[in-house]
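User: Please fill in residues for this 201-position structure.
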């Protein structure tokens, strides 16, 4: 319990540091310029699946699922409310989230596994994919809400995943990181942004 609280506090401090400098929003906007940074991504199985997953008919992602997905990732996505999900997925958050967010989190987890598979196969997707999946999560969480408190929780959860995407430079998600690694990478990334904004890079 003490370790979990420490991780939550340190993560919050890191987010506050970057947001306070004003570099996180600028980076997020820059990395999300245009829906697809590289059309070649869409010609890969994982890229086609991510594009379908964040589109108007996410079930299509199952028809273009990479052939080795089940063997490599250890499960076959399950269709829930019209969207493929990781049946064992969850909302991995340092703070409690509403139970209604469980289904959107499972869709998001499946999307992240597509990113991991693409990287594992030597064809990593551009940052557009992770940004699009994070936005999809935020949108899906908000759709479950019926009160301001829920909407606030959805915004907080989306901010958390967007921060991690920024911190990890939009690359394939790292499943488990130590608290020192999270803090170190947050400050390193913030320093890079400061130097870039100051024209030192």
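Assistant: Residues filled in for all 201 positions:
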């Amino acid at each position: 319990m003490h370790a979990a609280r420490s991780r939550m506090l340190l993560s919050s401090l890191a987010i506050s540091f970057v947001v306070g400098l004003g570099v996180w929003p600028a980076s997020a906007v820059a990395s999300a310029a245009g829906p697809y940074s590289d059309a070649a991504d869409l010609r890969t199985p994982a890229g086609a699946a991510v594009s379908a997953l964040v589109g108007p008919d996410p079930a299509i992602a199952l028809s273009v699922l990479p052939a080795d997905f089940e063997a490599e990732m250890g499960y076959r996505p399950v269709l829930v409310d019209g969207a493929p999900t990781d049946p064992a997925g969850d909302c991995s958050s340092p703070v409690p989230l509403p139970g209604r967010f469980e289904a959107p989190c499972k869709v998001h987890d499946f999307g992240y596994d597509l990113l991991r598979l693409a990287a594992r196969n030597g064809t990593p997707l551009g940052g557009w994919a992770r940004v699009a999946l994070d936005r999809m999560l935020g949108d899906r969480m908000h759709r479950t809400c019926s009160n301001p408190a829920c909407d606030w929780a959805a915004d907080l959860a989306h901010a958390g995943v967007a921060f991690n995407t920024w911190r990890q430079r939009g690359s394939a998600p790292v499943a488990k990181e130590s608290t020192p690694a999270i803090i170190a990478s947050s400050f390193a990334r913030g320093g890079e942004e400061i130097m870039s904004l100051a024209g030192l890079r």
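For context: The CA atoms of residues 98 and 150 lie 7 Å apart.
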